[in-house]
Amino acid sequence: MVPHLVTALSGPINELEQRILESMPAIERWFRLEWMEHTPPFYCSVDVRNAGFKLAPVDTNLFPGGWNNLTPEMLPLAVQAAMAAIEKICPEARNLLVIPENHTRNTFYLANVLQLKRIFHMAGLNVRIGSINSEITEPTTIQLPTGESIVLEPVVRSQYRLGLKDFDPCTILLNNDLSAGPPGILEDLHEQYLLPPLHAGWSVRRKSRHFQSYEEVAKRFGKMLGIDPWLINPMFNKCGEIDFGEGAGMECLTENVDALLSKIRRKYKDYGINEKPFVIVKADNGTYGMGIMTVRDAKDLEQLSRRTRNKMAVVKDGQAVTDVIIQEGVQTYERMHDAVAEPVVYMMDRYVVGGFYRVHPERGIDENLNAPGAGFVPLAFAESTRLPQPGEKPGASAPNRFYMYGVIGRLAMLAASYELEATDPEAETYD
Amino acid sequence: MVPHLVTALSGPINELEQRILESMPAIERWFRLEWMEHTPPFYCSVDVRNAGFKLAPVDTNLFPGGWNNLTPEMLPLAVQAAMAAIEKICPEARNLLVIPENHTRNTFYLANVLQLKRIFHMAGLNVRIGSINSEITEPTTIQLPTGESIVLEPVVRSQYRLGLKDFDPCTILLNNDLSAGPPGILEDLHEQYLLPPLHAGWSVRRKSRHFQSYEEVAKRFGKMLGIDPWLINPMFNKCGEIDFGEGAGMECLTENVDALLSKIRRKYKDYGINEKPFVIVKADNGTYGMGIMTVRDAKDLEQLSRRTRNKMAVVKDGQAVTDVIIQEGVQTYERMHDAVAEPVVYMMDRYVVGGFYRVHPERGIDENLNAPGAGFVPLAFAESTRLPQPGEKPGASAPNRFYMYGVIGRLAMLAASYELEATDPEAETYD
Questions:
Q1: What part of B 26-85 touches A (C-beta under 8 Å)?
Q2: In chain B, what residues touch A116 (CB-CB under 8 Å)?
């Protein structure tokens, strides 16, 4: 089931698709060379939006949930990619400890954890789930609506290692984005592989830092392909020292929103795009679709409702918001049964292993879809027709569109790799 | 569509399946460690036979054809594995030259070449087909019954490199088994990667050398798993200096057939197997299903027909047979619509990417199926249910049976890796 791309102006994206398809060997080689210099994040999911005239990533998740949304057809690809990842990082590993988010009642999330367990078991590891939730004090079995069950066990910390009772893993896979900062129990584990590393957590990550890297990646990729990088790059500004509760720092926000809207307007004019520009203001350390608002006019910021201010002031795990990123809004013109849809691309190691559409029947094309009420529809990614079909008319072939999404997803993953190198506290510096 | 396993005695294979499934993480780790020490052949297919009481590889092809028999569902796995292989061997490669067999009229074979071209194109290489057939003197387009067409181009040799007009590949993929010996045009290419290497060709390879390595692999694997390696290892002897035309060397053959039949009889007795043992006599350098006969009693060798002698005397490309391997026969008890079937497992780099059943309606369970009249039915390998299903009753789950076949296929691939190391003319020797 492939969403229909409903847009008057699809010329630019069809040209991009054609260019990407024709350049497939060059693109794949470009990625190969990049991965010789840079290490991909262990796993990753990327939200992509397709405006018909522009295609861009809008969020890159280094602790992806939602693996349970991938179809069974995609699992063999995920297992094969997991094997490749393990082989490179820790071929001698026997045991893998997965550290999930602290939710114990979100069975949808727990189904995701069970799917990860299944993937890494098939890839050849003994997998157990270690909770850092203080409520989990003994092995706890939770029944899922699917009929399956999952066992969460309390982690046990020794001086240098983390494990479970009678289970000493050589690798620890984080599926917890550490919004509240890494708990002490995860620090100074120098004898074990911790994947992704602690500085990939949201207490260190900043969206603006990621999109700065993405801009660099998009420029280099655009140059290689001979395209305007704007076609795949959402422009952005940022502001610090904001207090939404007190209304402090709003001048910076107003000015930057206004400036970015003007820049977008000029781009739209150059391309003959007859759309109303908008920006998305997001908490720079936000996740879980929290701390996000759509702004269509800088004046709107003067009259933010109390509800919106509250929503913007605090994100996951009660973290206060002081820094925001103001990002060029990219409409999503894909629709599934009248509901607005955006593709989410899943990657493991350097491989695209699948994806799905996030669909929200109550949201507009210029709004965040990662919100309660969203549904998930597997992409046709890994189905029989998934491989690109050279020679198809641009815009007419779903596999070709998905290949293009996979390229954009990998560009964002590469940006995350640049970002993690730049923020690595243990990086060697050459003064 | 999964063939039915029709056999009275399936206990041992069900135990083996259960053991293999329970030990999945240990098995995958064992392979990971092996691949740290040994390089997998670039690609490989393995014929497997399932006798219910025994499961064994009977032939390992290092220049696999038949890629066109894999279903579209399996292609993404093949592409991902090809990406992994290229990344390791030649990440900077732009161009790949495929050297096929010299047949220009076998459109079924050419469809296989086209499939390989597609896989490596998707993996990110510019792929062209260079023929070493002296009849191809200019670019030649051949129409296939599928409606597709393939272009064969004459290779161009310079002092150090091989290529096509205006096409300089940094990697050359052989899909030609070099039965007649490597042509001079392929020798001394020290600036280009030649995959697989020349000594993987049938002018150098010997089946007995391969099964010697396989025996070593099976013993080590059996020890790890705690099983009798005979359950997965076909015993063998060999004879040299045979002339089937003149009848020379037949005493050696008779003695060895008799000795091996006795050994099999003892094993059958130990396991309570009520079957008639048989051996397969094969040209030690044979391929394409040529030079193979089934022997049920050493006395039968005294009265070989002229036709059988002729068939055994010469194999592919007119190579005379002087050396034979006498291999324990493994019945195949799988059947598809009453026709005898044997699984063929396909691998790229270290990954199982798919497979199919070779089915022959006119052959018996103790005969070679690789013969004119054989048909091909894709295995359910890469379909949604492909991943093993822990907890299923042994013998009841097709995915579990295929996982077991994939393990056996990889053991044979590992044996090929040992074999190629032992026969590498450029290997460093430490005296």
A1: 26-29, 31-33, 35-36, 71-73, 75-77, 79-81, 83-84
A2: none
Angle, alpha carbons B66-B48-B384 (nearest 5°)? 70
Task: Say whether the peptide bond before residue A388 is cis (omega within 30 degrees of 0).
Answer: no
- Domains contained in chain B, number: 2
CB B16 within 8 A of CB B405: no
CATH number of the domain encompassing residue A170: 3.40.50.11280
Same structural domain for residues B168 and B86? yes
Query: Which of A20, A27, A29, A351 is the mutation pick for testing B, counting most B CBs within 10 A?
Result: A29
Q: CA-CA-CA-CA torsion for A327, A330, A331, A332, nearest 10 degrees?
A: -120
Maximum distance among all alpha carbons in chain A?
Answer: 65
pLDDT > 70? residue A62: yes
Interface contact A420, partner B, CB < 8 A: no
Could you tell me the pLDDT band of residue B131, with boundaries at 50, 70 and 90?
A: very high
Average pLDDT, chain A: 88
The token duo for B401 is 């049976």
Q: Note down the domain range covering A79.
A: 67-200
Domain identity same for B341 and B410: yes
**Is residue A290 scored above 80 in pLDDT?**
no
Domain check: are A85 and A41 in the same one? no
A–B CB contacts, 8 A cutoff, strictly below: 109
Q: Is A117 on the interface with B (CB under 8 A)?
A: no
For B351, the closest chain A residue by CA position comes to A80
Phi, psi values for residue B269, rounded to 5°: -65, -45
| CB within 8 Å: B384 and A73 | yes
